[in-house]
Design goal:
It is built from one helix and eight strands, in the order H-E-E-E-E-E-E-E-E. By secondary structure, the chain is mainly β. It has a single domain, classed as Tick-borne Encephalitis virus Glycoprotein, domain 1 (Sandwich). The chain has a four-stranded antiparallel beta sheet with strand order 1-8-7-6, with no helix packed on it.
Length: 149
């Protein structure tokens, strides 16, 4: 009976592990690759391959038109990121409004702001609801733009 129970436990553990070569379902893998979208909370840093990291430093401006409002212009949210590489760090500013720069370079890498959430909303009286800063999440696409010499 003990051998059957041990075999069953081993079988369950092997089945839960999945394919050892597949990292797609592992949200906590070390040094994820470049060329992907990453969601970063305000004040957080994501460490990527090649010693690259992106830190979400601040939302410097958020004048986006709230959901349900009628606005003449879409507004903009300007996000301050810090790109870190083995050669140093650089502050970069990116925007949600596509008429402004939505991507920036740092060292040999690039970061593009894909989305900033939450989106502004209105209360029942039509007044914009303030967004608590700790709830901001930026979706950033990180690229390698050149190979260091």
């Amino acid at each position: 009976m003990r051998a059957v129970l041990t075999s069953l436990v081993v079988l369950v553990l092997v089945a839960c592990k999945g394919d050892a070569n597949s990292q797609a379902g592992d949200p906590y893998m070390d040094n994820p690759p470049l060329w992907n979208d990453y969601v970063i909370g305000l004040g957080e840093t994501i460490n990527l391959q090649e010693g690259v990291a992106i830190e979400f430093v601040a939302v410097e401006e958020d004048t986006r038109c709230p959901t349900g409002a009628t606005c003449l212009q879409p507004g903009n949210a300007r996000v301050l990121l810090k790109g870190l590489t083995p050669r140093g760090s650089q502050l970069i500013r990116v925007n949600t409004n596509t008429l402004l720069p939505i991507a920036a370079l740092f060292d040999y890498y690039g970061a593009q702001l894909r989305k900033l959430e939450p989106y502004p909303t209105l209360d029942a009286q039509g007044v914009p609801i303030p967004i608590p800063t700790h709830t901001y999440e930026a979706t950033v696409f990180v690229t390698k733009e050149a190979t260091p010499p």
